[in-house]
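>> Question from a student workshop board

For tomorrow's exercise we were told to take the sequence and the ligand below, predict the bound structure, and bring the output to class. My setup keeps failing. Could a helper post the expected result so I can at least see what it should look like? The ligand is flavin mononucleotide.
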Amino acid sequence: MRSAANSFLVAVQFMTRLPVSRGVRYSPDALAKSAVFFPAIGLLVGAGGSALYWLLSPHASRDVIVVLILVYLVTVTGGLHEDALGDAADGLGGGWEKERILAIMRDSHIGSFGTIAIALGLLARFVFLTNLAPGKFIGFFVAAQVLGRWTTLPLAFFLPSARANEAGQGKLIAHRITALSLGAGTILALAIVAVALKAEALWAALVAVMIAAVSGLYYWRRIDGITGDCLGATNQITEIAIMTAIHGRKQSALSEFSRTEKRGLYKAIYKRRDVRGHFLPDPVSQRLLRKLLDSAHHAGSVGFMQPWSFIVIRNPDIKRQVKDLFEQANATAAAVFEGKKSELYSKLKLEGILEAPITLCVTCDPSRNGPHVLGRNTIRETDVYSTCCAVQNLWLAARGEGIGVGWVSIFEPAQLKRFLQIPEHVIPVAYLCLGYVREFLPRPELEITGWLPRIPLEDLIFFERWGEKNGK
Ligand SMILES: Cc1cc2nc3c(=O)[nH]c(=O)nc-3n(C[C@H](O)[C@H](O)[C@H](O)COP(=O)(O)O)c2cc1C
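>> Workshop helper replied:
Here is what the output should look like for this input. Compare the format with yours to find the bug.
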């Protein structure tokens, strides 16, 4: 236990400028032994950067925060990895023969390749960190720190030191990592990354493995092994590659949704249908119903008023009486149409109250949260609009779950209220029929039956003022 703690402290001392107690014990293979903790150092450094992000986010713009995080990174690590990247770029970019490459790497002066590599490395991290989606920042930041440092383990396990007769940090570690350390360090890294990234962890880990493998092969071909600078360079490149790959997956600052998720969202919108005649009797679980109601409950509402309530009605007797109320109101509604429209109206099925296993009355309480609701002083109906937003949320979520929803509005509201014992001041906004369905029609039923066509979108868009059609 004490030796593990000592190894951890050696790793902290080697990889950071954090003050470590004087009691650290060194042995010739202390650094190699400490390598198992390198991913944990990534976690430590990543946690510091994440804390900065979390503390500063309410007060500063993302680009300012990222600059501060980069300053933090180079300060806490003493620029260890940037220095290594610069030296490796100078050596591998400027040298041809192995001996020359190693000599340039050791040279304390910085050359043009090194300058370019460090500058591009910082720039790339600035751009990618600035554009990481808000909900993903901490996860990807920590994962990049952890996996970057993890790459030292396989590189040093598989490759020898490139400096046969000279000392160097690479020599302290190359070919001196045990299979146990490699395995334990890898499990540690994967565990941290799995917590940080969940489903995307595997994919980030693959990027790290690929960079370690490709850079390892490259070092082997060029200089027959590794140096400390090579290890630091791969560390930096992996960090950047993980962030670059996120960009490849189009995770922009404004959208946390993957392409597939976005497709799913639009699919629900376009394939949502009002369902009346295609309900199946299959029961809808309590859990799923709760999920749908919770989606409704997460709708926008004026002044966060949340004026909605939901009456879940499954009882066939109650449903039958609600159906009677519909029949009465529908007889009056049908009478307003004449000729062909009247004929067509009589053929339309306008509710599925008895067929749907669940029906829901969604109500709006205009008195909820007192007489003064933020944003509702002038347009009083915003309470009802909010309730409609809740219905739409439920409608879309239900479509995603394969549940059909039909909105029935043909009721005399006073009658429905009385029957459902809804208080006088509460408005019944929607009566919904819910259940699994035989099919979702490809287009609105009222469009298919020729009641009305869909209006071209262009006819509904004006620019700057009502009626103005010439917009760019
Ligand atoms: C506020 C509202 C009330 C509705 N009332 C009824 C109704 O009483 N009966 C009915 O058959 N459909 C009703 N509908 C469903 C519409 O007819 C349907 O949404 C429209 O024809 C478009 O079809 P789609 O929802 O399948 O795209 C209502 C829809 C809304 C938004």
